[in-house]
Amino acid sequence: MTLLTQSSIKSLPTHALQCSVTYSTIAPKAVTTAISSYYDLGQVKNCQFWYHGLSDIYRIETDTGFYIFRVSHHHWRSRSEIQFELEFLSFLRENKIPVASPLPTRTGELCLEIAAPEGVRYGTVFEYAAGSVPIGDLDCTQSHQLGETLAKLHQISYDFSPVSERSMLTPELIIDRSNQIIAPFLEHRPWDLQTLFSIADQVKAELQNLPQTKPFWTVCWGDPHSGNTHFTENNQLTLFDFDQCGYGWRAFDLGKFYQVSLQSGCTPKVREAVLQGYSSISPLRQIEIDCLPSLTVAAFIWAWGIHLNRAICFEYSRLDDHYFTRRLEKLKHLSSRNW
């Protein structure tokens, strides 16, 4: 599928400066054409560029309902990585886990190739998650329910047999590669750089005895929190945004929830409720519980690396000393375990 090609760009004078492109925005009109041409979703009534994040999100309204069209960034995910995610979501839906799953084209494809000026990008239509993000964040009942659902997701994922490949959520990926992005910005602050490395080494040492075997190791959501969960008025939930999924420690998903909930100001009771909900379905072993603080720190370093990498491309003006000081203070607070 070609939504945009060089031939569709107005010809410039021969003396005009010729520039390469790192990011382009697909026009909503082009998305509307693609949806109408490749999917049986009814007549498109409206298409809005909904959100610019690690991917571009469009909200589609047709005469059959609402849908999400996600367009990957050229530099972010390979086709194999995206296919892994889509296979996983389809598997979860088949096994009654409430996720916003991908919808196929008329020919059965889950992923469309887009010829953008910067290179190949990939587009996918997803079901629209009913409900909305909880106002003021999760309450204890919702947190408990999210924990239960996460445990069921991990249990069923033992049987997932992917065709596509994706990097595993190992310390090398979530900590070492993240620090490779962060460290150059701290070279003029050697004490802070040493603090970053010291905390990372401590976390990796504490995780080295955590087995990468069943039941500890399964396919993880990668980004479980209230912002990626919709609840209806009667508390029916739907999970979405599995862009960061992959094989990893099941307890890492709980660490990621803790990391986001601590940043958003959730009360300790809400954090405890998600673990209680999880344990009611699939109790953690003691070694996993002991590692939760380290997994929370690891999740913070990973999220920092992802955020920084995106800011380098799109928001370099934010990367002043104050930005790094704030992040380092949060990292030190998490590593103190005083939360």
Automatic annotation (TrEMBL):
GO BP terms in the entry: threonine biosynthetic process
InterPro entries referenced in this protein's UniProt entry, alphabetically: Aminoglycoside_PTrfase, Kinase-like_dom_sf, Pseudomonas-type_ThrB
Keywords: Kinase, Transferase
PANTHER family the record matches: AMINOGLYCOSIDE PHOSPHOTRANSFERASE DOMAIN-CONTAINING PROTEIN, AMINOGLYCOSIDE PHOSPHOTRANSFERASE DOMAIN-CONTAINING PROTEIN-RELATED
Similarity comment: Belongs to the pseudomonas-type ThrB family.
Domain Aminoglycoside phosphotransferase: 55-279
Protein name: Homoserine kinase type II (Protein kinase fold)
Chain ranges passing through the membrane: none
One term of GO molecular function: homoserine kinase activity
Organism (species): Dactylococcopsis salina (strain PCC 8305)
